[in-house]
Design goal:
Keywords: CBS domain, Chloride, Chloride channel, Ion channel, Ion transport, Membrane, Repeat, Transmembrane, Transmembrane helix, Transport, Voltage-gated channel. With about 850 residues, this protein is mainly alpha-helical. It has 29 helices and 14 strands. The protein has three domains: about 70-95 and about 150-355, Clc chloride channel, CATH 1.10.3080.10; about 395-440 and about 455-635, Clc chloride channel (Orthogonal Bundle), CATH 1.10.3080.10; about 645-820, CBS-domain, CATH 3.10.580. A three-stranded mixed β-sheet has the order 5-7-8. A three-stranded antiparallel β-sheet has the order 6-10-9.
């Protein structure tokens, strides 16, 4: 009976995965490379600029007074959904019994939602994959975006529950076996880790290659204005969730916190577009998120929710989004991001309370990261500042070395090893798993056990503890009952619990310097080698592991040197963790707040600030931060906050391309096809001529918009003469949302469009669809000013023109001050005087 249910579950999973939309198969194995083998770019700039063409103004004119209110309400509602969906009931959906119980409810919801239009299908049109979208609920794949809203939120709770339970089962089974035979226990331990890692790398290599790595460099590039194909797709989200469970549960030297940021961004993007790329709701309520500008705000909320969920640090999540991933910020976005993080904090607290009642299996004091050291060191003396500063220097040096080593290894891996195919990627990850299992199980066997400390019954210290149980003093391969293995306490344990042990207070002399140094060297090496394998991988928790180890080493030296009972080794472990993250990731404010939130000790805030400032300064002297290095390696053209120094001596004319490809206002369809085939440009100036024959640049036409016009064919005309849309002789047949490219996909290409010979002889008037007011700079403007303008406004194109011959007027600050006129209910300029020259 059980085998039949298992077989049916496997077949159902295969069926569900096979029915994921094929339109999302835009990922490529070398997802990080800037250029694919065919020469086409794997990244594309986003259009954050509002294109104020005739279609835009016509849509604006149709909007009533309530539109602005609805627009704001919908944005806040989706911020709430991102926070709730991110953590609420994934563990509930993880059980088959409850999934069967909610099937009738989901079916009823599907029937309600079927009043919406679904892309490629209405109630009268049935897509090829789903013969009837309103009657397929019982097959386990809810049609369209309902499957997104019901099945992809709540990922973080599901990941944490799965990882903790897999680890608990693994250690409990291994410990029960090693009571009889350590060899058999070792074999079981290795096989479990190998199976979990294999499942992770198989999912990534065969189904979701864009889910490899942490995803933070790609999301940072997206919010900087660069869209890497495949990073925000539904397939990537599923691969990220289950891949993280396998890689972290398999004991690799990586974490799940970085992938949770990517997961949050995927959830936000999918909610904004109402579903997957191919199947999604087309409700008018979702039209506000069609533009890249509004989608960027949602993705920012998702990133903050990911950090808030991973570390239970809502304020840290907001600051992480502000400091690390976003390039463009405003006060309204701050409010929504803060609201999303606050919702996440409430939901996480509710989930933790539910799990404390024993409803989550092995999910206990581990789980969601929080290492409470509020009972640690109360105060510090002036002479302790010197060893704390040394910790900052060590963190900067080791962090910079980590960035450089991972860059070299990732470059070699990407350009030599991974080019040999998916089989090599799977073998590599499995070999890393075997090495990690050998080290984590074998090294504690070589370490002599230590006697348990003499503690009273009120100390709260239990010694020894069996492996796999939360706490210090793990009994592993010890001949006596009252002994523990200090190396097994941090090696033969989950990373979260190992960090909790290193941060623990009132445990002086628990670890020997030899054990900590051994663990530091081996885990540092494993983290360097593991980073870059074809599995979801975060570096937050491994960085904390590395830093807390050498921090505890320094703390042991300080305790022995100063002979003060008030000094806690766990405090120095915390400072070491902060220093390594600062030296590697180069974050300051957000990381400082995150460390305070996860340790629940505000007294250490000045010390954390000190080590972060020192480690960042030391690391900056050698190389850039981890995410910037990986973005460069993956070919993501990030525009940093400051332009390069040599740009001050360059002008806009020197930087721009000399060959400009343009369209006339009324262009022949055959000429459009020819130009698009011979050029890979994404923007084309549109030229018109005045009555005197002078050339006039009337705007900018995007390649994606031109492809939409070619596919629809409704704007083709026989006459080569222009038409005036303002006269109403020819209505606009398109809305701005029709020109938006689906997120993280290649979108429409010229190969998807089929034109007859008669179509090629037709003409298109581009005036109603172009951007009539693109940003323009004079040719002799310094490249530094152009850089700042480009980055701060989130532009995709800037026209470089000769020095203008005359000035129509000047606009000052007072000309931009607007006040309401209550009588006419219109907006008037406070000063409309413009000085004519």
């Amino acid at each position: 009976m059980l085998s039949n249910h298992l077989q049916n579950g496997i077949e159902t999973a295969k069926l569900v995965w096979s029915r994921l939309p094929n339109a999302e198969e835009g990922e490529h194995e070398d997802i990080g490379l800037l250029q694919r083998s065919d020469g086409s770019s794997n990244v594309e700039s986003l259009d954050y600029e509002v294109i104020e063409n005739y279609a835009y103004w016509e849509e604006q004119a149709q909007r009533g007074k309530l539109y602005v209110g609805k627009y704001v309400v919908v944005k806040w509602f989706f911020a709430l959904l991102i926070g709730i969906d991110f953590r609420l009931y994934a563990p509930i959906r993880a059980t088959l019994h409850l999934t069967q119980g909610v099937a009738p409810v989901v079916k009823a919801l599907v029937l309600k939602v079927c009043s919406f239009k679904v892309q490629g299908s209405t109630l009268g049109e049935k897509p090829a994959i789903y013969p009837d979208p309103c009657r397929k609920t019982s097959e386990g794949l809810v049609y369209g975006s309902l499957g997104i809203s019901r099945g992809t939120g709540l990922a973080a709770v599901f990941i944490n529950l799965s990882v903790e339970n897999f680890a608990g089962w693994k250690f409990a089974l291994t410990f029960s076996i090693i009571q009889k035979s350590y060899v058999a226990g070792f074999i079981v331990y290795v096989l479990i880790n190998l199976g979990l890692v294999f499942s992770s790398v198989y999912i990534i290599t065969h189904f979701a290659p864009a889910a490899a790595g942490s995803g933070i460099p790609e999301i940072k590039g997206y919010l900087n204005g660069v869209d890497s194909h495949g990073i925000l797709l539904f397939r990537t989200l599923i691969g990220k969730i289950f891949g993280s469970i396998g890689s972290v549960g398999g004991g690799l030297a990586l974490g799940k916190e970085g992938p949770l940021v990517h997961t949050g961004a995927c959830i936000a993007s999918l909610l904004g577009q109402g579903g997957t790329t191919k199947y999604h709701l087309s409700s008018r309520w979702l039209q506000v998120f069609k533009s890249d500008r509004d989608r960027r705000d949602l993705v920012t909320c998702g990133c903050a929710a990911g950090v808030a969920a991973a570390f239970r640090a809502p304020v840290g999540g907001v600051l992480f989004a502000l400091e690390e991933v976003t390039s463009w910020w405003r006060s309204q976005l701050m409010w929504r991001v803060f609201f999303t993080s606050a919702v996440v904090a409430v939901v996480v607290r509710s989930a933790m309370g539910w799990c404390k009642n024993g409803n989550c299996g092995h999910f206990g004091s581990g789980g969601f990261i929080i290492w409470d050291i509020s009972d640690g060191q109360e105060d510090y003396s002036f002479e302790e500042l010197l060893p704390m500063a040394v910790i900052g220097v060590i963190g900067g040096l080791l962090g910079a070395l980590f960035n450089q080593l991972t860059r070299y290894i990732s470059y070699w891996r990407r350009n030599h090893l991974h080019k040999k195919g998916n089989r090599v990627k799977i073998i590599e990850a499995c070999l890393v798993s075997l090495i990690t299992s050998f080290i984590s199980f074998g090294l504690p066997l070589l370490r002599k056990c230590s006697p348990c400390p003499d503690t009273g019954p009120d100390s709260g210290i239990e010694c020894p503890r069996p492996p796999g149980m939360y706490g210090n003093y793990v009994n592993f391969y010890c001949s006596k009952d009252k002994e523990y293995n200090d190396l097994a306490t941090i090696f033969f344990n989950t990373q979260d619990d190992a960090i909790r042990n290193l941060f623990s207070a009132k445990t002086i002399h628990e670890y020997s310097a030899q054990s900590l140094l051994t663990f530091l060297v081996m885990f540092y090496s494993l983290a360097v080698v593991t980073f870059g394998t074809a599995v979801p991988a975060g570096q937050f928790v491994p960085g904390i592991m590395i830093g807390s180890t050498y921090g505890r080493l320094v703390g042991m030296f300080v305790v022995n040197f100063y002979k003060k009972l008030s000094i806690e080794e766990g405090t120095y472990a915390l400072l070491g963790a902060a220093s390594f993250l600062g030296g590697s990731m180069r974050m300051t404010v957000s990381l400082c707040v995150i460390m305070v939130e996860i340790t629940n000790n505000l007294k250490l805030l000045p010390l954390i600030m000190l080590v972060l400032l020192i480690s960042k300064a030391v690391g900056d002297a050698f190389n850039e931060g981890l995410y910037e290095e990986q973005a460069q390696l993956r070919g993501i053209p990030l525009l940093e906050s400051r332009p390069k120094y040599q740009m001050r001596k360059m002008t806009a004319k020197e930087a721009c391309g000399q060959r400009v490809v343009s369209f006339p206002r009324v262009v022949k369809v055959a000429d459009v096809v020819s130009i698009l085939q011979s050029n890979k440009h994404n923007g084309f100036p549109v030229i018109d001529h005045t009555r005197n024959g002078e050339t006039l640049v009337i705007g900018l036409m995007l390649r994606s918009h031109m492809l939409v016009l070619l596919q629809s064919k409704v704007d083709f005309q026989h006459s080569p003469l222009p038409c005036d849309p303002r006269t109403g002789s020819r209505p606009i047949r398109h809305t701005p949302s029709e020109f938006v490219k689906p997120v993280s996909s290649k979108g429409l290409t010229l190969d998807d469009i089929h034109l007859s010979p008669d179509d090629l002889e037709m003409y298109i008037d581009l005036a109603p669809f172009l951007n009539p007011s693109p940003y323009i700079v004079p040719e002799d403007m310094s490249l530094t000013k152009v850089y700042n303008l480009f980055r701060q406004l989130g532009l995709r194109h800037i026209f470089v023109v000769p020095r203008p011959s005359r000035v129509i007027g000047l606009i000052t600050r007072k000309d931009l001050l607007i006040e309401d006129n209550e009588e006419s209910a219109t907006m008037e300029l406070q000063s409309t005087s413009v000085r004519s020259l």
